[in-house]
Amino acid sequence: MGTIDVYPYPVPEEKSGQQVVDTIQKQLELLGAHKSGNFCVDCESYQSNIQTATQQRLLHLFHNSEQPATCFSVLDSGICLVSDLLFEVLVLKLTEKKTGKECYYQQRKGFKVESKGQRYELGDFIVKVGSVILASNFRGILIEVEYCPCVIPSECWNLMKEFMQSFMGNMAENPPAHIKSKMDTIYTPEDTIQQYLEHFNNFRKATSASVPATPNR
Amino acid sequence: MDSTGAMGQVLSSKVAPVVENFLQGSVLDTSKDVLIHRLRGLCDNAENQPEIFHDHEIVFIMQGNPNQQPINFHARHSLMHPDAWHLRYLGVADIGDKNKLTLIRHCVDAGVSSNVVDFLNEMGFKIDFEFIAKGYFFHKGRMKVTVSKLYKILQPGSTDQVEPLSQSHLVELSVVAPRVQEQIGEDMKNFAEQLKPYILYKIELKLDHLQTV
């Protein structure tokens, strides 16, 4: 585990998502990267239904194929719980409706979002080109770049920037917002999830803004 | 790659350990050493000193309107390794079936990061009660045997100021398995028989007593 930066990659209107993904992958292969399987980061959201609580809570449940036995739960306040996969069963307990009883949390329909695609390795770098899929519709592209030998973002930012610019152009001019605030701390898998959450939320917002008539969002 | 599907699969294929068979009893403090001696002989790794534990458990409750059933989560961590937290859901023990040799309840365990207390609070849970358990741990095959003394915490948040809850030790036999199996109950009953001279078995939930703390 090293330092990871996640960036959205724009899809021009005249091109399809798949075409852009193919172009990036081709560029990576030209650089000498080799395929090393698939990856997937997914997120389900649950809304609280507790009348006694002062405010409604949104709970995001994440999985990352890089940490297959772990489940990350992020509340909208930003606190992130890292746990075994079985924590999900505990959340299911809260969403369970017993006969005549109401549940405490309920899943938000049409809110499932995931980023999945090809994983590449190139020397000390791991690059993942992910297609973002929200409620089974393609919404955009996220590129994740990991530099494995270093866990302090500020120590390797210039190196990562140079590498990323070689195939992403000027997309990676600045560190991602979440990383910017903790450049000198040790990077953890939780930080990856926080970056994805930020991007996923942006995609969700963009979707609900462009399709205001959909009732289930 | 659909992980919720994977989770569903884990549950439906019955690989995840979610059923706990258990028996509970108590032994007077004065007879505890004899029991420990006997357990050392009966359980695995008899040549080693028994493993000790010193845990702090906080029981959280989620309560809503009368239409919502209260739900408890048990967060536990060792005071010897304070950062290792563990979260547990325990269902209600099935006491209706007299034919069952042990009590059986639904049980889900998950290791969690050390911010679990803040996380549960923000999720809407409230602290119901807390206690300290200190004692010995043995295992025989997949059976877990604990002999522990429970302490109540005099000042919330301070795990040093404690007072024993009773003059007895709690003895628990437990096997967590993916599904209900008759054989487990059989094995546990046979094991419990061998401790009978020392322990008074009760078919009751210890936590009911603790709630009055």
UniProtKB/TrEMBL annotation, chain A:
Keywords: Activator, Nucleus, Transcription, Transcription regulation. Its main location: nucleus. Signal peptide: none annotated. Belongs to the Mediator complex subunit 20 family. It is found in: Nucleus. Pfam families: Med20. This is Mediator of RNA polymerase II transcription subunit 20. Component of the Mediator complex. Component of the Mediator complex, a coactivator involved in the regulated transcription of nearly all RNA polymerase II-dependent genes. Mediator functions as a bridge to convey information from gene-specific regulatory proteins to the basal RNA polymerase II transcription machinery. Mediator is recruited to promoters by direct interactions with regulatory proteins and serves as a scaffold for the assembly of a functional preinitiation complex with RNA polymerase II and the general transcription factors.
Automatic annotation (TrEMBL), chain B:
This is Mediator of RNA polymerase II transcription subunit 18. InterPro entries: Mediator_Med18. It comes from the Eukaryota. Belongs to the Mediator complex subunit 18 family. Its main location: nucleus. One of its GO terms (cellular component) is nucleus. The keyword Translocase does not apply. The keyword Nucleus applies. Component of the Mediator complex, a coactivator involved in the regulated transcription of nearly all RNA polymerase II-dependent genes. Mediator functions as a bridge to convey information from gene-specific regulatory proteins to the basal RNA polymerase II transcription machinery. Mediator is recruited to promoters by direct interactions with regulatory proteins and serves as a scaffold for the assembly of a functional preinitiation complex with RNA polymerase II and the general transcription factors. PANTHER family: MEDIATOR OF RNA POLYMERASE II TRANSCRIPTION SUBUNIT 18, MEDIATOR OF RNA POLYMERASE II TRANSCRIPTION, SUBUNIT 18. Component of the Mediator complex. Keywords: Activator, Nucleus, Transcription, Transcription regulation. It is found in: Nucleus.
